[in-house]
Every structure is written in C-alpha cells, then in structure tokens.
Specification:
The chain is α+β, with helices and mostly antiparallel strands. The chain has 8 helices and 21 strands. A hairpin with a 4-residue loop joins strand 15 and strand 16. The N terminus and C terminus are likely disordered.
Length: about 425
Amino acid sequence: MADDKTRVEMDADLEKEIADALGDASIEAMLSAAAPPEKSKPKAQPKRGEEPKADRRTGTVISVRGHDVMVELSAKEQGVAPLEQFPETPVAGEQAEFIVVSYLRGEGLYQLALPGRATKADIDSLAEGMVVDAVVSGHNTGGLELTVASQKAFMPISQVELGRVEDLEPYLGQKLQVQVTELDRARKRIVVSRRAVLEVEQRENRERLMEQLAPGQEHDGTVRRIEQYGAFVELAPGADGLLHISDISWSRLKHPTEVLKLGQVVRVQILKVDKEAGRIALGMKQVKGDPWEAVEAKYPVGITLTGTVTRTAAFGAFVEFEPGVEGLIHISQLSEQRVNRIESVVKIGQQITVKVVDVEPDRRRIALSVTALKASEQEESDASPDQVQQYVKEPKKAHAMQSLMDRFGDTGQKGGI
C-alpha cells in the first residue's frame, strides 16, 4: 500500500550534479531569496497543543469516516489521514506507515499522510520522502526552480522525468507533484524530485496490471523501444511487455522495423505473465490466427500455385504464398536438367509457378515441384482432342473429313487409312 522506502537517498552522482549546476553558495542564495523567517523548531515529542516535527510512525487503521481514515498510533495517540491517499479503502486492523504532518489543536489528533502521496505542507512539517505539490517558478541549465510550502526549492534536470529532458521552458508555471529528497532547514535547502514520484506511479501501475493480466487476453499497446531481438510495447504507463521478433509476424523477419515503428499502436496477445520476475511476453501474430490451420484446404495436393521465392538453400528454394505459409522446391524438382547451384535457376524475390505434390500441416511442410508441373502440362497436351477432331471443327474441311469418318469409322485407331 504505502511505499516501503523510508528515505530517498541522494547518490554521489546526483550530489555532483547539483553542485555542478549551482554550487552550494548559489543554491543557498536562491533558496533564501524569498524565505520567511525560520520558525522555532518543534519538540521531538510534542505535548497536547504543540506543533510536532514531521516524522514517520506506524499506525493501525481503526475505522473509515467519510473522507477520513482514523488511525491509532499508540494507546494514547490517534491520528487522521485523507482517504483519497489510499489506493484502496483500508479495513480496520490494517497497518501502514504514516508521516506526521501536523498536530490538530483542540482535537488531540495528528494529521497524517501516506509516504509517497501528495499532501499540503509548510516548512516545519516537511520531511524527506514526503510528496508535496510544487509550482515551477524558473529554470537554469541545471534544473528547475520551484516553490514548495512557500519556500524556494530546486529540482536537478535528471529528476524532472523518467527519461532525458532537453527543454525546460514548457515546465514554467506548471504545478507538479514532487518528492522531497533533501531537506536542510538550517540552510533553507530543499531539493526535490519528480522522477521519484513517477517511478512510484510506474511501479504501482505495473503491479496493478500484472494482477489483471492472463495468457490469451488481447490488449492495445504502444511500441516504445525496438531492438534486434524484438520490441517493447507499453500496455499501461510503466508497464511494458516484450514482443519477440518471432512473435511479430508469421513471415520471417530480419529486423522488427520491417513491420513496426516507434509510437505505433498495435494489438497484442498476452502469451505469458511472470509475476515474480515482473515479465510480460507478448505476441502480435497470434491475434491474426495461425494460417497453417487452413493450409490443407487452401493448398491441396495437385493444385498449381504462384508464389514468391523468399530464400534459398543448398537443397532447394522456399516459396511463400501468404504471410507465414511457405513451401519447399527440392533441388531435384527445380528442373529436368541437373542443377548444381540453386541461384542459377531461381532468385530471391522471383515469382514462380509450381505444383503442390505433398502437404503436411502438422509438420508445417508443403512440398512443391516445377518438374511435376511441366509433366502435368505435357500430359494435358497429350490428352487433348487429336488432330482429326480439331480438323473437323474447321468449316471448309468439315464435309471431306466427315466422309472419311463415315467410311472408316471414329474408332480412335492410330495409323494410316
């Protein structure tokens, strides 16, 4: 429910980025420019009516009242948190970690917030890891300048988005949800990150989607990245699945870009979901169905077809009739003459007419022949009406031929008369 991470640690690279962008002196000057006088620090354990220092507490949900969630922090301490911050309505007895935002005078309650959820705050109630609303007031080469809880704050450019940002101008005046990653009240230094918020959202989106996905489902997705081995398709913000090159098309592909392009919306089928590893396997060709299921009916033995030579090998040439359906012309079936080199007879991309001599749908094999086609043509020629019958059809010679036939009969015997 709430993010288990209790503190967003600044790594060395991020610290260096801030120092290189502004330097300690310049950031202090920027943050103190419009800062109000610092209030007195609250006590660590406030008494009733005193303002507490923001901290983290583990509490137990007591009940839900309207838009408020009542929480027990200890036997003598209770608090209230906004229901809207919970991804799902909590139930009594459920435990969670909360940030103490303030102490509600007169009510004896702590105002609580879930870590990683936006909340209104002032400088005294800010804490590292808290998500708050911020307004972008300016920018420089190092990042964005923002206003957080009436204070100036800074966001390094690497923390603005999940990916690289080239132009900061469009962010001016925008209201953003950011996470406090560094807080130094004495120096009035506040460093925030929007990327941390987006990463949490991304992780939650993915976890939610993983629970809903099942093999066989079909979804629309957007191609976000293309590699030699396949493409990554975004099913929801932060939830990508791998579309392997072998599952893109029933035809053989050398590279996914033969079919796909970045930003393209495609219909995919869920092939496998590994919830533990967080992996989703997708298929695009499966949506269209397997063309081999109808091969035996569409391409029966004896039929003559015209297809395209897609590839050659030492033993023969492959001919495609539709995406994913190929047949093989064995080298011995290419010509009545001996063939030493396939490319001397056929070339890739060439249109060729062949005869189907065998079909094995279960093995995805179709045997083709050029020589059988020529033999069939020869047989058809031999089986056609003989010259006598053709001769009879000519009007000028019909009477003479009819006389011969009447005299000797139409016995079909061969030889002279």
